[in-house]
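Write out the bound-state structure for cytidine-5'-monophosphate.
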Amino acid sequence: MYNIAIDGPAGAGKSTIAKIVAKELGYIYVDTGAMYRTMALACYRAGIKSDQKEEVIEKCKSVDVSLGYENGTQKVYLNGEDVSIEIRQEVIGNMTSAIAVYGPVREILVKMQQELAAKNNVVMDGRDIGTAVLPNADLKIYLTASSRTRAERRYKELVEKGQKCNIDDIEKDIIDRDYRDMHREVSPLVQAEDAVLVESSDMTIEQVVEAITKLVK
Ligand code: C5P
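---
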């Protein structure tokens, strides 16, 4: 199997890029952030706060998170219910990085991710793919961009969806989330030693895709 790991901070464009690269290569795209978001949604719906460690862990152990594909698009299911859209809310994104610090929560999802990669050619994106999930991946990319650039991209997306938002608040949320992801004890976000760094602040999506597909070839 050929496994490509793409890691990097929030809003660096990992999923956009990974989706296109997977399509071009005929590989499966695995969005691991969606899996963590689904666990956070389960806790949120149950009224559990992210600092209630034992309750969070118990809830995550009791739910079923699964992935499916519809016309090449990844769907994520919580106990069989398609929650692919609901998990995208900002409130869930922020809660996710707070529950992703717990080792037992990560263990459940890492096992699923490793099983997927053992059976399929994958482009998998997340925070710990090159370092913890697939340390032997054939290609590792660390995709990043300045926090301002990432906030501007997110702002544009939200405005296009007709949502009211403030770019400084978005940048602050991004910086807070990166801090939590980079400073947690278990599998913090860090560039793997053998990952190729792609700094995309001044690159278009096409340029990043081209750079990665060239590395695969
Ligand atoms: O990539 P996305 O923004 O959807 O990820 C949401 C959160 O899930 C991240 O901020 C991070 O805390 C967590 N995550 C993680 N490990 C991964 C993927 C996501 O801890 N492999």
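---
The radius of gyration is 16 Å.
The chain is about 50% helix and 20% strand.
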